[in-house]
Amino acid sequence: MTNPIARAAQWDAQDPLAAFRDRFLLPLTQQGEPAIYLCGNSLGPMPKAAQDEVAEVLASWSTRGVRGHHEGEHPWLVYHERFAPSLGRLVGASAQEVVAMNTLTVNLHLLLASFYRPTDSRFRILMEAGAFPSDRQALASQIEWHGYSPADALIEVAPTGPKGAWKTDDFIVAMETAGDTLAVVLLPGVQYRNGQVLDIAALTAAAHRVGATIGFDLAHAVGNIPLQLHAHDVDFAMWCHYKYVSGGPGAVGGAFVHERHGTRTDLPRLAGWWGHERSSRFQMGPNFQPTPGADGWQLSNPPILSLAPLAASLAIFDEAGMDRIREKSHALDRFARELIALRCGERIDILTPIDAGSRGCQLSLRVVAGREHGRRVFERLEAMGVIGDWREPDVIRLAPMPLYTRFIDVERATQCLAQALESP
Q1: Is the pLDDT of residue 29 over 60?
Q2: Which of 215, 287, 366, 384 is geometrically suited to a Cys-Cys bond with 236, CB 3.0 to 4.6 A?
Q3: CA geometry: angle at 404 spanning 46 and 326, to 5°?
Q4: Helix (H) or strand (E) holding 90
């Protein structure tokens, strides 16, 4: 193998996305140097321009007061609408099918209020076993809210593939087995623990064949992999923006509703005045007239200060493009796997599928020596300036996000990983 450092330097010099790293403020080590930040799957670093976006809102508030709703470059009355074109490009949808609002689990509940309408015969929900806890808790509470028992109504499909991966066919067989008892399917675009990309197109088609509605939790997919929600005929989706999209801690989330549902009058929802049709919203009438499209699922006027940083990050994604991000993601992943195999051998088990179409920019690692040793390895990595995250019971997640991760960062991180494994 040629010198990994030389290879990394060559690839970094040729990287068409290299300049985007300077658009972010990366956390510092105790020595004051930029950390090797591989934690964008948990919280993305801050775009430098986010400060200017927040400052603009504060300046308008300080000089205009309530007039800021109607005046300035970005009036607050329509502030959330500025994000729709970029969000549409990010998830493969029209601007009318997406909205920036609330947070992920709030949006999940709001969308289930419309799309989970159980009957005595069709009342079951299907998800993956080991889903992110908030998703399972939300689904179980919705089932109970409608008077059913999760023990009867919640179907959880276990992974049967290599290293705990899910098989598309297992989901499809479970849907077909549930048949006309299945009301809703909720699955991740990318599974949070192992980083596996699911086949959204195939799963959506399978759900529709049995008459079920399907939605996706895209928390670990948005900004990570290219998405085509409209073309794949997904019914609804929700996501957060604080991970790969770098929208800030607790950032305002996003939601997608396919256009065929956007003007339905027979689709119930939990209504609020900001979802009311804009031209008559301020007439303050008692009856709800929903805005067409995803905007109609809004409840209250959006938190402008929390939305502001998202403008900075979405501008970066628009400029970089998901195709280029994905291409570099594959290259970073290949390099990381090669170096982990070379330097760590059988001491590390990579849980994330190796197939390019089944992985994003996350490597989920398990230390073969066991949980306690794995936890010590994770802590040593952090002490060496490599920031990833830990997921119980025994998974280290490292996410080389192409917008700010260099090939030399991957080289150094794998070197640190090998060193951290040496001590008992």
Answers
A1: yes
A2: 215
A3: 115
A4: helix 84-91
